[in-house]
Design goal:
The chain is about 45% helix and about 15% strand. The protein is an alpha/beta fold. The protein has a single domain (about 5-250), classed as Alpha-Beta Barrel (TIM Barrel), CATH 3.20.20. Strands 1-2-3-4-5-6-7-8 form an eight-stranded parallel beta barrel, surrounded by six helices.
């Protein structure tokens, strides 16, 4: 049985004051012990969040890491080893905003995935299609290619220590949400792709849905057989809304 997971991606939001308020709100949430919960603040606020949530059941992750795992001459970047030293336990890799806005290729994403794992972090690999790709019937092809980019270089076994997040690009920050059936179809295809290499591993890997997840839609999404939780964007900036989503994952 896969443990549900809910992850909050705070993106480029937060001041020291608003982060302190959010931490306080999260600490007051009643969340099932059967759900793994993680938050991904901006790099600037990682240490504040790690300190503020110390002693709680919340894991803290980073939104990105450098392609090189160790410290070095790479101005503006943060190494996975530095994130591990700051007590992060997870890191997002390949988020659609980094793929589309910053031009990260599958090769770059794969290097970041490897860097994260080599530094003791759990990578959360983000995959998903644009609206044009969905309308062209290319959803499964696009997602399979993004997943294959990692599998072909690193091997399927690396997913024993990783999480996958399916995030249809057209549903991120738009208010649009894939229907539970649409999301399930893609999640099932991802699991089948893994199962073709390792059936046992495929049954263990957690696959999260990301794309305008709200408390109102969470229970139905999480009720699908291959959806193991959510990667939550805007709703994770509201402690009560995020707490409700977490409780939906545990129900």
């Amino acid at each position: 049985m896969r443990r549900p997971m809910v992850a909050g991606n705070w993106k480029m939001h937060g001041t020291r004051a608003s982060v302190a308020e959010l931490i306080n709100g999260l600490a007051q949430q009643q969340i099932s012990a059967d759900v793994d919960v993680a938050v991904f603040p901006s790099t600037l606020h990682v240490l504040q969040v790690v300190s503020g949530l110390a002693g709680s059941d919340f894991a803290v992750g980073a939104q990105d890491c450098a392609i090189d795992p160790q410290q070095g001459a790479l101005t503006g970047e943060v190494a996975a080893s530095q994130l591990h030293d700051a007590h992060c336990s997870l890191v997002l890799v390949g988020h659609s905003e980094r793929r589309s806005v910053l031009g990260e290729t599958d090769q770059v994403v794969t290097r970041k995935f490897a860097a994260a794992q080599s530094s003791g972090l759990t990578p959360v690999l983000c995959v998903g299609e644009t609206l044009a790709q969905r309308e062209a019937g290319q959803t499964l092809e696009v997602v399979a290619a993004q997943l294959s980019a990692v599998i072909d270089v690193l091997g399927v076994e690396v997913f024993a220590q990783a999480v996958i997040a399916y995030e249809p690009v057209w549903a991120i920050g738009t208010g649009l949400t894939a229907s539970p059936e649409q999301a399930q179809d893609v999640h099932a295809a991802i699991r089948a792709q893994l199962a073709a290499k390792s059936p046992e591993l495929a049954g263990q890997v957690r696959i999260l849905y990301g794309g305008s997840v709200k408390a109102a839609s969470a229970a139905e999404l999480f009720g699908m057989p291959d959806i193991d939780g959510g990667l939550v964007g805007g709703a994770s900036l509201n402690a009560d809304e995020f707490g409700a989503i977490c409780r939906a994952a545990g129900s």
